[in-house]
Amino acid sequence: MKIILTHEVPNLGSAGDVVEVKPGYGRNYLLPQGLAIAWTKGGQKEVDAIQRARASRQIHDLDKARSVADQLKQTDAHIVARTGDGDRLFGSITAADIFKAVDEAGGPKIDRRRVELASTIKSVGTYDVT
């Protein structure tokens, strides 16, 4: 059974993908849950138009992301926190703290959910954040 996904489905695809699934999985799970619609020629044309628009939007977003990355590389943000013995922090530095420090340092406007840390910062030092 050919279907068009309307939402991201783990191990199957993302929204707008045309995939082939077993009929029972499509009829009994994907279609009733609203995760997909049945494939039609008209639906395929619509998906093609959406994918072309998505591709052009991704190019624009990539250029914008590179610009923001260049600005971030030039931004030094300093966070002041209380420490105890052995350069251990009282508490920890989180992604929200880093977002606030970049904003106060005059860095570019970024979405706070895009700040990623492998783990919270718990000791004094210099760190690179993505």
Highlighted features:
5 strands, 2 domains, Ribosomal Protein L9, domain 1, alpha+beta, two-stranded antiparallel ribbon, elongated, Ribosomal Protein L9, domain 2, 130 residues, three-stranded antiparallel β-sheet
Describe the structure.
The protein has 130 residues and is an alpha+beta fold. 42% of the residues lie in helices and 15% in strands. The chain has helices at 23-33, 41-73, 95-104, and strands at 2-5, 18-20, 36-38, 88-93, 121-123. The two termini are 42 Å apart. The mean pLDDT is 85.
Distance separating the two termini: 42 Å
CATH superfamily heading of the largest domain: Ribosomal protein L9, N-terminal domain
Strands across the major sheet, in which order? 2-1-3
Q: What count of helical segments does DSSP give? A: 3
Q: Which CATH class of the largest domain is shown?
A: Alpha Beta
Order of helices and strands: EEHEHEHE
Shape label: elongated
The major β-sheet equals: 3 strands, antiparallel
What is the third-level CATH name, the topology of the largest domain? Answer: Ribosomal Protein L9, domain 1
Can you name the CATH architecture of the largest domain? Answer: 3-Layer(aba) Sandwich
Beta-strand level of the residues, as a percent range? 5-15%
Overall residue-averaged pLDDT value: 85
Total E-strand runs: 5
